[in-house]
Structures are given as C-alpha cells and as structure tokens.
Design a protein that fits this description.
Strand order of the largest sheet: 3-2-1-5-8
Order of helices and strands: HHHEEEEEEEEEEHEEHEEHH
Largest sheet: 5 strands, mixed
Oligomer: single chain
Radius of gyration: 28 Å
Distance between the termini: 85 Å
Helix content: 25-40%
Number of helices: 7
Bound molecules: dinuclear copper ion
Structural class: alpha+beta
C-alpha cells in the first residue's frame, strides 16, 4: 500500500517569491535618503565604485552556479522506469584543480581594488580640513568643533566641498563613567560605517559635494533606543557655514542668568523652573555653547530643525510633550530609576519623565509648566 504525502499547495512558492521581492523592493525606496548607492561625496563614491564591479562579478558567478544546478537537477532527475546508477568514478584531478583555482583567482582579482580602497579611505584627509569630534552617547550624538569652540547635538553642520575629519569617541568627561557603550557612525550617502568604540578614537572623513541634508544613524546596537539614534549632516555653502559658526559662538538669545558671582540667579520664572524646580541644568547647558554636557547642549536649540536624536521635528507641540514626558516619545530607561534616593547617575539613561514615575518628594510637572519651558527653549535661536 502506498501512502500519499500531502503535496504543498502550488501557489505557496510563487507567493513567497513575489512577496519577498516586493518587501525587498521597499528597501530601495527613492526617498529614504540613506541609500549608499546614491553617493553624494568622495568617500561614498569610492565605496560605490568598488561595490558596483564586485556586485556584477557576483551576479555572473551566481547566474553560472544557479544555471548549472538547475540544468543538472533537471537533466539527471529521477524518471519512472529508469533506474540506472551513475558511472562510478573516484575524483577528477582536472575538475578538483579547476574549482580550487578559479574561485581563488576571482577572490584575488576582487581583493586588489578592495585593499586599495580600504587604505585609501583610511588615509588622513589633507588640504583645508575641518575637524569635528562626534561623541556617541545613549542615544544621541554630540558634535564638537574644537577650533571654533562650539558644541552642538544631532545635526552636524559642515561646509560643502570641504573634507571634514570626524574623530569618533564614546568617551567624554560629561558621561558618568567617562565612557559610553559602542556605537557606529554612518551617513550612507557620505561615507561608510565606522565604529565608535569606548577607549579608543577612530576617525572617518566625510565630504558633501553640494549643500543639502544627509541622513544618518547609529549602526551598532547600543541599547534600548539604538533604533532611534539618528543624526543628520547639514552641508552649507562655506559662507553660510561661517555665519552658522558665528551664531553658535554667540551667547544665548535670551540670557538665562542675571547677576554675577554669588548674586547669579535665573533670569525669570521660567528659568527658575528650569534651574531649580526641575533641575534641567543638571544635564543640559542652556547658556554656554562651548561646553559638553550629559544631555544635549541647548544654548542654540532653536537653530536646529530636529531634536531627540533627530527623531522628531522641532515643533512646539512635540517639544512640550518631550519636556513633560520624554520616555513617552522614545523608550528610555528612566522609569523608577530615580526611586529610593539612589543616585540617578549611572543608573538612569536618557531623559526622565517629569510627569510620570517621578521620585517620591519631587514635584510633578504640569502641562502648563512644560509649555512654558518649551516656549523658552524655542527662543534659543
Ligand atoms: Cu548608538 Cu546604536
């Protein structure tokens, strides 16, 4: 008695192929602006120039192998009534040598441009180089311009057509343990990925051929909000860039403190909320754009187009919601981490909520206060 094994439904195969094709096609959407196949600067172009020939070599090899597999599978498939054993042989020296040498040759050919490109990309940039330091934090990027003495966050402003050496570090005095976890700096249209490793300084060179906004993101898992750790590079005409630097070097548009020395105090009731009641100034600088702080430097917050590691557009509504309850907009490890009088530093990561799970005895923010703080921050152009 023969037992019939159930045949898989005929439509399953084609449906899987069609479905995955559509799914993969979505990755190449024109407007995702993180397409390394559309390079906008010399480093990304070098990578693209390497990728394209290697891709076509792989296509040729893939087509040849798959065709051979199909041909042999069909040609020598089982046929009812024909039960011949294949001719028994023991190895074939020409074949063995052939399929060892051919792949080795292909790899050797591919290795030449690959090694050249790797060394080329690892070279220190020369010429009129702008130096920037990017500090990877949980979960945002701090950008420091040492020559210009400017610190900003999440939006790296650069002059177009000029090489920018980005030193990459995960360590910084403003971090509780001096070093953060591993991150990876990646702006696909400008350069390849480069790891940001605690304890050492890497660098990458980016350059944008023309002014524009280039999106990037952290490309190494770094904790809860890794997927939300975005950034953008904003390339400007050189004269616009110089103007931007001047504006960043200036003091805050609305002075935060009045008085000097021991008489120094917040300038108004909103500043009182920020400095005393909710102590935002523990983690953020609002009046000095030259200092690095645990949270983003906010002295010129309103000059940026986004906030929250580039995740949200900077609008009054979003910013108010953020001030009120940041972990409600982006997952962060702040719930309960400030409980029981334990020191928050080192245990709390990211921006706390001021309206939910606040530590016992601490004030809970009202929406009106959040609006007031957000209004003030939006004046900091
Ligand atoms: Cu930072 Cu992933």
């Amino acid at each position: 008695m023969t037992q019939q094994t159930p045949r898989p439904r005929r439509w399953v195969g084609p449906a899987v192929v069609l479905g995955s094709t559509l799914l993969l096609a979505a990755c190449s959407a024109e407007n995702n602006r993180q397409n390394s196949l559309k390079p906008e600067g010399p480093a990304a172009e070098k990578i693209d120039n390497l990728f394209i020939p290697v891709f076509w070599i792989s296509v040729v090899v893939g087509v040849l192998v798959l065709t051979a597999v199909l041909v042999f599978a069909l040609r020598f498939r089982y046929r009812a009534g024909r039960n011949e054993n294949p001719k028994q042989i023991h190895g074939s020296t020409p074949l063995e040598i052939g399929w060892t040498i051919v792949p080795a040759l292909i790899l050797a050919v591919v290795a030449v441009p690959t090694v050249i490109t790797i060394f080329d990309l690892a070279k220190e940039p020369s010429g009129n180089v702008l130096n920037v330091t990017a500090v990877g934090k949980q979960w945002w990027w701090e950008f420091k311009y040492p020559r210009q003495d400017v610190v900003t966050a999440n939006e790296l402003v650069i002059p177009a057509g000029r090489p920018v050496k980005v030193s990459l570090t995960a360590c910084d005095e403003s971090l509780p343990d001096k070093c953060n976890v591993i991150h990876s700096f990646w702006v696909p249209q400008l350069a390849g990925k480069r790891d940001v490793v605690p304890g050492r300084t890497n660098f990458t060179t980016i350059e944008a051929d023309k002014p524009g906004t280039y999106l990037g993101q952290c490309a190494e898992y770094c904790g809860l909000s890794h997927a939300n750790m975005r950034m953008r590079v904003i390339a400007m005409e050189p004269s616009e860039f110089d103007q931007w630097v001047d504006e960043q070097q200036a003091g805050p548009a609305v002075p935060f403190q009045v008085g000097t020395g021991a008489d120094q105090r917040p300038a108004g009731p909103t500043q009182e909320l920020i400095a005393t009641k909710y102590q935002c100034t523990n983690c953020h600088s609002l009046s000095d754009s030259t200092v690095s702080s645990y949270g983003p430097n906010l002295t010129h917050l309103a000059s940026r187009t986004t906030f929250a590691s580039g995740y949200y557009e900077l609008t009054p509504e979003r910013l108010t919601e953020w001030v009120y309850n940041a972990p409600g907009l982006i997952p962060m490890e702040s719930a309960h981490c400030r409980d029981e009088g334990e020191p928050a530093i080192g245990r709390c990561v990211g921006m706390p909520s001021f309206s939910r799970d606040t530590p016992p005895g601490q004030p809970t923010m009202t929406r009106q206060e959040a609006e007031q703080i957000s209004d003030y921050l939006l004046q900091l152009t």
